[in-house]
Amino acid sequence: MSEPAATPILSTRDGAVLTLRINRPDKKNALLQVMYASLAESLNAAATDPSVRVVVIAGGEEAFTAGNDMVDFMKAAQTGGSGGESPVIRFMHALAGFPKPVIAAVNGLAIGVGVTLLLHCDLVYAGEGARFQMPFVNIGIVPEYASTYLMPRIMGHARAMELVLFGEPFTAAHAKECGLVNEVLPTDKLEARAMERAQKLAAQPPNALRTCKKLMKRWTDNTVIEAIPLEAFHFGPMLSKPEAQEAIGAFLQKRKPDFTKFS
Length: 263
Prior knowledge:
Blueprint: E1 9-14, E2 17-22, H1 33-47, E3 54-58, E4 63-65, H2 70-78, H3 87-96, E5 102-106, E6 109-111, H4 113-116, E7 123-127, E8 131-133, H5 147-155, H6 157-166, E9 170-171, H7 172-178, E10 183-185, H8 190-202, H9 206-218, H10 221-238, H11 242-252
Parallel strand pairs: 2-3, 3-5, 4-6, 5-7, 6-8, 7-10
Antiparallel strand pairs: 1-2, 8-9
Helix pairs in contact: 1-3, 3-10, 5-6, 5-10
């Protein structure tokens, strides 16, 4: 039985594969605090459930996720809900520390955390029409989710800086060239391919998969754990600074921000 459309995170099973689908299409799958909490709970439960061998994270054809719902996010920031053990941080740790293979299937928009969460997935498949963007600097803040460490490591300093400093949209083909994506597929074939790869992984020896992932991440785990709160230490206070207030206000008012008065 399918879950109602109003459910913002859909959880479905196909054998040993658990699919977590971001399901807020009217808002381009922008993430609410409650959605982060649901994702964290599902991942933490799957981590200790032996019947789950692989997790797939997906969105819809129009959007994987457009990042944070800015109204909800700013409300959480004002009440101190954007750091510490907030839903966002719980989700970040749940995915970064997940012991089993995670596959992302990306169609449509992937913005902000919609890109940085991919750094913590083991395999990423994208539709030809997927569009990625990390507009952190554009709104007066810094990247999060250990991306300041992982991105230069994956694609090199120059490419990482170009994507972050300009915050411009880039294609699925460029994401593959940068090492963010494993394979680019026609939009209508993306999810079938992601599920086919997930089912193939689910048929592999589970302990071998977990141990391989543990060893692959062994050399970066401590730095990722250190980077998440360090970025948050800068990220949180920057939200209340004039640059971010101008950028976020312009976004909500649908106008171009003016940074000429800042030094």
